[in-house]
UniProtKB/TrEMBL annotation:
Mn(2+) binds at D146. It comes from Actinophytocola gossypii. Catalyzes the reversible cleavage of pseudouridine 5'-phosphate (PsiMP) to ribose 5-phosphate and uracil. Functions biologically in the cleavage direction, as part of a pseudouridine degradation pathway. Substrate binds at K91, S148, A149, D150. This is Pseudouridine-5'-phosphate glycosidase. The gene is psuG.
Length: 314
């Protein structure tokens, strides 16, 4: 695959050409491939996600850091490398990009770092799984200072992010409050409630609802017309047929929280422990839900990107 290189960034020619021609491009993260899915399945999902974006009429741009360069758009060999468990890719949030580039480390990008790189490359729409948020307080605490960098980056970067809300292992109410404080519009895509990743609904509403890609694109365009500022969060519930059973979900969450308390797990280690328990104790049901919602989110993101391209003045 030919590439266009500028400074520390390499953009795949297909992505660069689409952007130059005003076409629709969707950014995709690599952390879900390197750290979120088991080997073998991750490579299949990598291909399925890019296929879903193309089927909706947009160009996929999977993002990672390889060979000391920000890479925007990966070929098959690159995706093999990202999905290889022996490749030892670091998990790179926004704060980690500088060190990784300077030290020549390979890494998979999170929502925060993918958003920053997408914006730097001129990509305005990003499809992913679940947004990071405010963590629940550790046992014995009344509040948590553990807040995902995803929220601050979304609050200062004009990229539209399509996801399935935040995982129920996080503090959903506090997360929604932080989004409001950061002036991030939250759009429920065909829903009036904020989704909780594995579950289609939480007990929290969304301030705005949109029912078509065109209406979502219009909101994004209007928000951007105010000048540089925050991104837009579009929350799209997991497809109904893949929603995790409520009783199973609640049992797994309670068991996972008990395990966290018993092991004195804290900070950023809490969510991985909880999610690993979901994956193993659900018999794979949570992995199926994860894959299904990611595929649906990137489809919606691509449809919004296509509408944004069509609405752009000639």
């Amino acid at each position: 695959m030919s590439e266009v290189e500028s400074g520390r960034m390499r953009v795949a020619e297909e992505v660069s050409s689409a952007l130059a021609g005003g076409g629709a491009v969707v950014a995709l993260e690599s952390t879900i491939l390197a750290h979120g899915l088991p080997p073998g399945r991750n490579r299949k999902v990598a291909a399925s996600v890019e296929d879903a974006v193309r089927a909706a009429g947009a160009v996929p741009a999977t993002i990672a850091v390889l060979d000391g360069r920000l890479r925007v758009g990966l070929d098959g060999a690159d995706l093999d490398r990202v999905c290889d468990p022996d490749a030892d890719l670091a998990k790179l949030s926004a704060r980690d990009l500088g060190p990784a580039l300077a030290l020549g480390r390979d890494g998979a990008t999170t929502i925060a770092s993918t958003t920053l790189i997408a914006n730097a490359a001129g990509i305005g729409v990003f499809g992913t799984g679940g947004l990071g948020g405010v963590h629940l307080p550790a046992p014995g605490q009344t509040a948590s200072w553990d807040v995902s960098a995803d929220l601050d980056v979304l609050g200062s970067t004009p990229v539209a992010v399509v996801c399935s809300g935040v995982k129920s292992v996080l503090d959903i109410a506090a997360t929604i409050e932080v989004l409001e404080t950061r002036s991030v519009p939250v759009l429920g895509y065909r829903t009036d409630t904020f989704p909780a990743f594995y579950r289609r609904e939480s007990r929290f509403g969304v301030p705005w609802r949109v029912d078509t890609p065109a209406s979502a694109a219009s909101v994004v365009a209007a928000h951007r017309s105010r000048g540089p500022g925050s991104g837009v969060l579009v929350v799209n519930p997991v497809p109904a047929e893949h929603e995790l059973d409520a009783d199973l979900h609640d049992r797994l969450l309670a068991e996972g929280m008990a395990r966290v308390a018993a092991s004195d797990v804290r900070g950023g280690d809490v969510t991985p422990v909880l999610l690993e328990h979901f994956h193993t104790a659900s018999g794979g049901a949570s992995l199926d839900a994860n894959e299904a919602l990611v595929l649906d989110n990137v489809r919606v993101a691509a449809e919004i990107a296509v509408e944004l391209a069509a609405q752009r003045p000639v």
